[in-house]
Amino acid sequence: MSSTAKKRLIRDYRRLLTDAPEGITGAPSSDNLLVWNAVIFGPVDTPFESGNRWSPTYDVAAILTSIQSLLHDPNPNSPANAEAARMFSDSRKEYNKRVKETVEESCKMSTTAKRRLMRDFKRLQTDAPEGISGAPCPDNVLIWNAVIFGPVDTPFEDGTFKLVLTFDEEYPTKPPHVKFISRMFHPNVYANGDLCLDILQNRWSPTYDVAAILTSIQSLLHDPNPNSPANAEAARMFSDSRKEYNKRVKETVEESWA
Predict the structure, then answer these.
(1) Of these residues, 39, 118, 196, 211, which one is catalytic?
(2) Is the pTM of this model over 0.90?
(3) How far is CA 46 from the centre of its chain?
(4) Distance between CA atoms of 220 and 188, rounded to whole angstroms?
(5) Where along the chain is the active site annotated (predicted)?
(6) Helices (H), ranges, the chain
(7) pLDDT at residue 255 above 60?
């Protein structure tokens, strides 16, 4: 992928994190910046509630907003689903009933953990702390892909660091397993990407949500704890050779753009 495409997609992603139109969200997959997962919340006052005009000026937010508008105002004269188009035109009550069935299917949360995770997800869409993003996988709400942008005024600045959060049915009583997919050089991150972070271990509380977890990890990038090292070399450099430590971190920042 060209550097121009990467830069544009990262710019699109940052815009979605900081100024997303209401009711839409999207993020690149953990292993491919060219493949995005997106979610559209059904527009209010439609049965969906609780492209040949492409232009290079459109970004991801514009695409998702257009799809959301299509849910609100279908075009039965250009049908992809003839039955839905016929019902929409001739039997609106039956159409609304069928749509409601899809709404109920999309909201099936059979467990406390899944209901809580959807609440966490909605919070991230409406009130996300700056510099973090997360969303469940399309086929499994218990597995999340997340991104943390490196905090400013730290050697991690400008990095886009990918993580995977794996929950089980005991959440929020039990914390998720959180792992960096991006290569990290940090005193409190193991070589395999696992974290040494107290709130994910002995200081976990059911009051923490996904936003709190990601914010805590972002703070850990800003303020490492070399006294509880997961990476002894990084901890030593952080304490004794900050210039060399910063250089090694910058290498991971550049790798995070790939």
Answers:
(1) 196
(2) no
(3) 26
(4) 8
(5) 196 (glycyl thioester intermediate)
(6) 3-19, 60-72, 82-90, 92-106, 112-127, 210-222, 232-240, 242-256
(7) yes
